[in-house]
């Protein structure tokens, strides 16, 4: 395949390779959408639906156009020009980009050698100019998790006037026994805001549905940035169907976790350093420039689109055929 041919394997954006769950796909096809009617001016039904699922009042939930939309609201509310946002590097590209877009300063703390966020160094970087600290669990791009003890330790070290954003975009891929009860943490830490999305495990990336939950005063401030008519009626139908399809979701995430494990072990067998991922992607850690160039050429040759992150490469977990293709190219 030539470099200009259509890509066979889209493994750069952490998309769900299978699309929406079967029952969700059916619900979207059967949704009774009236094209000439606007959706809700500002969303009320969808936050209430999500809040009920979380066991929270609707006042503690805010909706956005994907998690990126909610993150944009958060940064606009709490970060003024010249203020700083502490984050890991590499991380989700949106954090430094959106921070710089509002003339904030991204303070980027390198990951540890094994691909974890360096929470001690991040806490040390907080100063009088810091307004927001961003954490990801699982972390993008390495897939590593923050456990409860680590998270509580960081929260204890950060002044309550600083907003802590915990990005849980990939939480549905984490084994239930390994998940942190973040609703309980929010109750004890009013400066903590948790963001999630329906774009990843649920496969609704095109519908752009993300949300955040936190203390009522914080969410009320974030909600002020919502724009009218941004949440479509189809998105609302999709979320409702997702919540009715938990059994299907468990099967889907188990299949992706299986491929994640197969891809991880295969790459490790080829000599690559790959952190254990709790998400739907893996990370080739600490690659040298020559190795990155070799892999880039091999992936382009074989029609595999991946994400290059400085000295590492993030590869979305696809289906079994995609896993085989990545391992073959990596040899």
Describe the protein.
It is a single chain. The chain has 12 helices and 12 strands. The chain is an alpha/beta fold and 331 residues long. It folds into 2 domains: 9-20 and 246-330, Alpha-Beta Complex (Aspartate Aminotransferase, domain 1); 22-243, 3-Layer(aba) Sandwich (Aspartate Aminotransferase, domain 2). It starts with 8 loop residues before the first strand and ends with a helix.
Short key terms for the protein model shown above:
Aspartate Aminotransferase, domain 2, 331 residues, 3-stranded antiparallel sheet, alpha/beta, 7-stranded mixed sheet, Aspartate Aminotransferase, domain 1, 12 strands, 40% helix, disordered N terminus
- Structural domain tally: 2
Strand content: 15-25%
Instruction: Give me the secondary-structure category.
Output: alpha/beta
Radius of gyration: 20 Å
Percent in helix: 25-40%
Q: Give the N-terminus to C-terminus distance in angstroms.
A: 17 Å
Main beta sheet, described? 7 strands, mixed
Q: Assign the CATH architecture of the largest domain.
A: 3-Layer(aba) Sandwich
Mean pLDDT: 92
**Strand elements, count:** 12
So, the CATH homologous superfamily of the largest domain?
Answer: Type I PLP-dependent aspartate aminotransferase-like (Major domain)
- Sequence of secondary-structure elements: EHHEHEHEHEHEHEEHHHEHEEEH
Kindly report the CATH topology of the largest domain. Aspartate Aminotransferase, domain 2
Low-confidence stretches: 1-6
Looking at the chains present, what oligomeric state does this protein adopt?
single chain
**What's the number of helices?**
12
- Please give the CATH class of the largest domain: Alpha Beta
Anisotropy-based shape:
globular
As laid out across the biggest beta sheet, the strand order is 2-8-7-6-5-3-4
């Amino acid at each position: 395949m030539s470099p200009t041919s259509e890509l066979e394997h889209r493994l750069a954006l952490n998309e769900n390779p299978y699309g929406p769950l079967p029952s969700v796909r059916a619900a979207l096809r059967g949704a009774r959408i009236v094209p000439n009617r606007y959706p809700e001016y500002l969303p009320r039904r969808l936050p209430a639906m999500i809040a009920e699922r979380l066991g929270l009042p609707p006042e503690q939930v805010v909706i956005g156009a994907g998690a990126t939309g909610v993150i944009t609201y958060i940064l606009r509310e709490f970060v003024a020009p010249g203020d700083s946002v502490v984050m890991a590097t590499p991380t989700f590209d949106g954090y430094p980009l959106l921070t710089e877009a509002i003339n904030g300063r991204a303070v980027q703390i390198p990951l540890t050698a094994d691909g974890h966020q360096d929470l001690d160094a991040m806490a040390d970087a907080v100063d009088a100019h810091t307004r927001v600290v961003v954490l990801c669990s699982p972390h993008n791009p390495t897939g590593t998790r923050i456990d409860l003890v680590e998270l509580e330790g960081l929260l204890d070290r950060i002044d309550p006037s600083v907003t802590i954003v915990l990005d849980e975009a990939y939480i549905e891929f984490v084994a239930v026994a390994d998940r942190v009860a973040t609703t309980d943490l929010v109750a004890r830490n009013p400066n903590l805001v948790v963001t999630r999305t329906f774009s990843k495990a649920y496969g609704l990336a095109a519908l752009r549905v993300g949300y955040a939950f936190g203390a009522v005063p914080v969410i009320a401030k974030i909600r002020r940035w919502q724009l009218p008519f941004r949440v479509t009626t189809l998105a609302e139908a999709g979320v409702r169907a997702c919540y009715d399809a938990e059994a299907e979701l468990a099967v889907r995430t188990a299949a992706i976790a299986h491929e994640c494990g197969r891809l991880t072990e295969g790459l490790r067998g080829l000599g690559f350093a790959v952190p254990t991922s709790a998400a739907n992607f893996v990370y080739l850690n600490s690659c040298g420039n020559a190795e990155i160039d070799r892999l880039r050429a091999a992936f382009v040759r074989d029609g595999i689109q991946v994400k290059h992150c400085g000295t590492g490469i993030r590869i979305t977990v696809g289906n079994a055929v995609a896993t085989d293709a990545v391992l073959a190219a990596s040899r």
